[in-house]
């Protein structure tokens, strides 16, 4: 046996002895199931919103000429926020008023009088021709005069009737036309007058102006928001819930919230509204909750994370989730894999309905 073999022969027993000691000293950690409360909840994220919070849009397009308020101001319903340039609209309104006045019944009174006069003349002419025709018929009945004279009188009478009817039609048509034009142009003037109000943007509610995104001299249109206004004291939570969880939610369920602006604190709310349509892009549903316990100070668009409480059980048998194998087995001290029936689960624990007891020692797989 050479030197190397002798060295290994002497070293091997020592190594085996050290491994045996290490194996004896190494302890496999075990736990026992606990009897405690378990809560099943659904996670949601969202933002804080002011009651009646809305984005302000202008109804007209123009350049900002005057700003009446600033961020943080309290505003009343109907209070002006800003004003847009309206010179062109003023000209349109003036033109509409001129046309309305020109087309009014009073301005066209002379035309109506003339038409009525022509109608009266035509009526007198018709009545006169009727009288002459009647006399000629009586004379013809007494064999006085000629048939040609009778025919001429009849023709004159019929012509007079036609002239009268035409004059009557013209008079009626003129009256209707003037009335229509008068009402139409007056309506146009009223619309133009109403549009003048569109150049002053006003608040729709009593509340606080949280944001004003335009400055004097900037262009405003009806497609882009210019401000955010909401209630100054009342807030609610707008949450996004995954489509997988929406069927578990009900009105009135408790919600526990955390806010980055209030680290370490938990606030309480309750589900107040479930929107019945899914956002196709995010595959989530919008849920609203009202505060039960809220921070002293809140601001719109603060971010929040929430747990919506679905069910709570008191004094149930639980184990850590990482001791559960394939969602239905646990490992006992004799290395046995035993099947269990589970119940509620949260992020850390799982309820065990049957399969083991509080006296069983469990090992982490």
Low-confidence stretches: 1-13, 15-26
Average pLDDT reading? 84
- Fraction in beta strands: 35-45%
Strand order of the largest sheet: 2-11-14-13-12-15
Helicity range of the residues?
25-40%
The shape is: elongated
Q: If helices are DSSP runs of H or I spanning 4 or more residues, what is the number of helices? A: 4
The ordered string of helix (H) and strand (E) elements is: HEEEEEEHHHEEEEEEEEEEEEEE
What is the SS-derived class?
A: alpha+beta
What radius of gyration results from the CA coordinates? 47 Å
- Whole-Å distance between the termini? 46 Å
In total, the number of strands is 20
Note the quaternary state here: single chain
Biggest sheet character: 6 strands, antiparallel, barrel
Written description of the protein model:
It is elongated, with a radius of gyration of 47 Å. With 365 residues, the protein is α+β, with helices and mostly antiparallel strands. 21% of the residues are buried. It has 4 helices and 20 strands. The longest helix has 50 residues, at 147-196. Mean pLDDT is 84; it is low at 1-13 and 15-26. Strands 2-11-14-13-12-15 form a 6-stranded antiparallel β-barrel. A 4-stranded antiparallel sheet has the order 1-20-16-17, with no helix packed on it. The chain has a 4-stranded antiparallel sheet with strand order 3-10-8-5, with no helix packed on it. The chain is 33% helix and 36% strand. Strand 18 and strand 19 form a beta hairpin.
């Amino acid at each position: 046996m050479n030197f190397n073999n002798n060295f290994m022969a002497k070293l091997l027993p020592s190594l085996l002895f050290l491994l045996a000691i290490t194996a004896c000293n190494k302890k496999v950690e075990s736990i026992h199931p606990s009897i405690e409360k378990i809560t099943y909840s659904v996670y949601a994220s969202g933002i804080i919103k002011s009651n009646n919070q809305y984005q302000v849009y202008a109804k007209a397009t123009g350049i900002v000429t005057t700003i009446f308020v600033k961020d943080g101001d309290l505003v009343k319903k109907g209070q002006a926020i800003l004003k847009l340039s309206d010179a062109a609209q003023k000209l349109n309104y003036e033109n509409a008023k001129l046309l309305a006045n020109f087309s009014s019944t009073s301005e066209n009174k002379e035309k109506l009088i003339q038409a009525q006069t022509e109608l009266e003349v035509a009526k007198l002419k018709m009545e006169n021709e009727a009288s002459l025709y009647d006399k000629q018929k009586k004379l013809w009945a007494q064999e006085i005069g000629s048939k040609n004279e009778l025919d001429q009188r009849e023709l004159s009478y019929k012509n007079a009737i036609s002239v009268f009817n035409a004059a009557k039609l013209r008079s009626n048509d003129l009256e209707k036309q003037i009335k229509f034009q008068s009402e139409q142009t007056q309506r146009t003037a009223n619309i133009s007058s109403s549009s003048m109000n569109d150049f002053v943007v006003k608040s729709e509610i009593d509340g606080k102006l949280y944001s004003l995104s335009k400055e004097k001299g900037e262009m405003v249109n009806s497609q882009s928001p210019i401000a955010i206004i909401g209630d100054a004291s009342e807030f609610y939570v707008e949450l996004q819930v995954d489509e997988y969880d929406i069927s578990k939610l009900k009105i009135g369920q408790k919600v526990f919230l955390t806010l980055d602006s209030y680290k370490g604190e938990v606030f309480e709310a309750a589900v107040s509204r479930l929107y019945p349509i899914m956002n196709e892009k995010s595959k989530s549903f919008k849920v609203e909750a009202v505060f039960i316990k809220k921070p002293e100070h809140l601001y719109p668009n603060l971010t929040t994370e929430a747990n919506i409480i679905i069910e709570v059980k008191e004094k149930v048998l639980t184990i850590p989730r990482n001791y559960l194998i394939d969602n239905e087995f646990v490992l006992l001290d004799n290395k046995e894999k035993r099947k269990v029936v589970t119940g509620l689960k949260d992020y850390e624990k799982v309820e065990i309905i049957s399969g083991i007891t509080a006296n069983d020692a469990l090992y982490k797989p």
